[in-house]
Design goal:
With about 280 residues, the protein is an alpha+beta fold. It has eleven helices and 14 strands. Helix 4 packs antiparallel against helix 7 and helix 9 packs antiparallel against helix 10. The protein starts with a strand and ends with a helix. The mean pLDDT is about 95. Bound molecules: flavin-adenine dinucleotide. The site of flavin-adenine dinucleotide has 29 residues, from strand 2, helix 5, helix 6 and strand 10.
Length: about 280
């Protein structure tokens, strides 16, 4: 069976009513860079596809100290904003120009490992996600959105509408290490956001991609630098803790063994980048 109908709602209420009407048989598609190859290869065979391109879910808006990023905002649009440099850096390291012109920030949260590079940066930034469904809207921390390998907190009849990012000033670093210099899947991705109080680290977020079933934070590594002035021994303790805590996997890109070691190397380098 191939796709028989492509639906293009012009608003969020219209999109939600189509979901209610067709139920789980309706495939939601944003930029299509993950969903389309699966259809083309016959792995996913939906009868109906609903595209979000014209549903009014794109755009970036600053509201007080929160940046609201519409779920259907493209990665190219994210690259153009300058309110949150870490997100620009993450977008720059994701795929190629052509994929970034189609692929969306929302879609990045659904990308199977080792993908989801922007999601790693969003996790380090304490982002929240706004979900909408027939019972209304709810927001939850991105950390609670991911529940397992290719599973998340989104109900069958809900859409991801917006990602909300606090824009309070933080020191950040982003490193994606792949087998090629650019346009490459991650061996490991590291995103860090810290806040200092009187020169010492007050809060720390260290998020990893391709080191677990979904983007993860490494709490012991974060704890290793809180209270420090990011001296080299604190950085080394954080890198060692991250290596112990991460849950990497083996795929065509790298082995679990290699990924774990690269977590140590790149958490250390990213923290040194914060210091620099
Ligand atoms: C050649 C190539 C290279 C790539 N390189 C990278 C890379 O380096 N780093 C990286 O992170 N990713 C990479 N990707 C993966 C992908 O392009 C990005 O992750 C992109 O952000 C996915 O967004 P999309 O809108 O295209 O997702 P889509 O394909 O449109 O969506 C995928 C699925 O997500 C769900 N979904 C999407 N939006 C919503 C929503 N608003 N509400 C509910 N469900 C939703 C749907 O189930 C949908 O089927 C690459 C892809 C390709 C083809």
């Amino acid at each position: 069976m191939t796709v028989r109908e492509y639906l293009s709602p012009r608003s969020l209420p219209e999109a939600l009513s189509l979901m209610e009407r067709y139920g789980p048989d309706l495939l939601v598609m944003a930029g299509g860079t993950v969903a389309m190859p699966l259809i083309n290869d016959g792995i996913s065979l939906p009868e109906r596809v609903m595209g979000l391109r014209h549903a009014g879910l794109d755009g970036i808006a600053q509201r007080g100290d929160v940046l609201g990023i519409g779920a259907a905002t493209t990665l190219t649009q994210l690259l153009a904003q300058d309110a949150v440099p870490l997100l620009r850096e993450a977008a720059r390291n994701t795929a190629s120009w052509s994929i970034r012109n189609m692929g969306t920030v929302g879609g990045n949260l659904f990308t199977p490992p080792p993908g989801g590079d922007v999601a790693v940066a969003l996790l380090a930034l304490d982002a929240r996600v706004r979900l909408a469904g027939p019972r209304g809207e709810r927001t939850l921390p991105l950390a609670d959105f991911f529940t397992g390998f290719m599973t998340n907190a989104l109900a069958e009849d809900e859409l991801l509408v917006e990602i909300q990012v606090p824009t309070t000033v933080r020191e950040t670093a982003f490193i994606k290490f792949g087998r090629k210099h650019a346009n490459t899947p991650a061996v490991v991705t590291v995103a860090i956001a810290v806040e200092r109080r009187d020169g010492r680290i007050g809060t720390a977020r260290i998020a990893l991609g391709a080191a677990g079933p979904h983007p993860i934070r490494v709490a012991d590594a974060e704890a290793a630098i809180v209270g420090s002035a990011l001296e080299s021994d604190a950085i080394q303790r954080a890198a060692d803790a991250a290596m112990r805590e991460c849950r990497p996997f083996t795929d065509a890109i790298a082995t679990e063994w290699y990924r774990r070691r690269m977590v140590g190397v790149f958490v250390k380098r990213a923290l040194e980048r914060v210091v620099a």
